[in-house]
Amino acid sequence: MSRTERLFQLMDSLRRLPSPVTAAQLAQETDVSERTLYRDIDSLRGLGAVIDGAAGFGYTLIEDAHLPPLSFDDEELEALVLGLREVEAVGDPALAKAASRALARLQARLPDSQANRLKHAVLSAHRFVQIPEPGIDASALRKACWEERHVSFDYVDQHGAPTRREVQPLSVVFFDRSHCLIAKCLLRDAFRTFRLDRMAELAVSNQFFRPRRVSMLRDALAAYKIDTGKHP
């Protein structure tokens, strides 16, 4: 991890953890010694972050210079909380953690009254059905979608039949109880959806299909609305 990445991670920890946060906690979060942690705190202060506290007492982030002030009306704030809580509940592990960080970052930049409203929001989201874990690195798959790269993976369909698929990935969506990839399957020469928990051995190719993802996704969604039987 580079020093810049470590400082960003330290800021996220200060936003997310209950304050005051001890140096030992922050050092563990950023995987450094406490001596290095103290230097990093000084570096953040030098960059404009207002951090209260000292060694032996813990630290509290008072003002975050990296983000501009934010303000939302009450309904907008509830919508943001509900959306991020939903991602925490149904997202893959990387997205769920990102949603938690985003909530902490949002709360750090709101006026006190709205920060309290966010913390005790009326709306929330919970799932009581176990959502299957992706069998592949979902972050790598999302990146391949953005970069419009071909990917290949092992796949087991609903009948237990294994295949190796090469596809042009278009979008990752959540269908009811599972995460799915919408893609153009080169084996079937058609749009298909693939459950991420049935995928394994993801390989990202250097072969691109840009700039066709947006138009292809539009066509795939139109086809999917007509023929839901394509959902495996």
TrEMBL record:
<feature type="domain" description="WYL">
    <location>
        <begin position="140"/>
        <end position="203"/>
    </location>
</feature>
<dbReference type="InterPro" id="IPR051534">
    <property type="entry name" value="CBASS_pafABC_assoc_protein"/>
</dbReference>
<dbReference type="InterPro" id="IPR036388">
    <property type="entry name" value="WH-like_DNA-bd_sf"/>
</dbReference>
<dbReference type="InterPro" id="IPR026881">
    <property type="entry name" value="WYL_dom"/>
</dbReference>
<dbReference type="InterPro" id="IPR036390">
    <property type="entry name" value="WH_DNA-bd_sf"/>
</dbReference>
<dbReference type="InterPro" id="IPR013196">
    <property type="entry name" value="HTH_11"/>
</dbReference>
<dbReference type="Pfam" id="PF08279">
    <property type="entry name" value="HTH_11"/>
</dbReference>
<dbReference type="Pfam" id="PF13280">
    <property type="entry name" value="WYL"/>
</dbReference>
<feature type="domain" description="Helix-turn-helix type 11">
    <location>
        <begin position="6"/>
        <end position="59"/>
    </location>
</feature>
<protein>
    <submittedName>
        <fullName>HTH domain protein</fullName>
    </submittedName>
</protein>
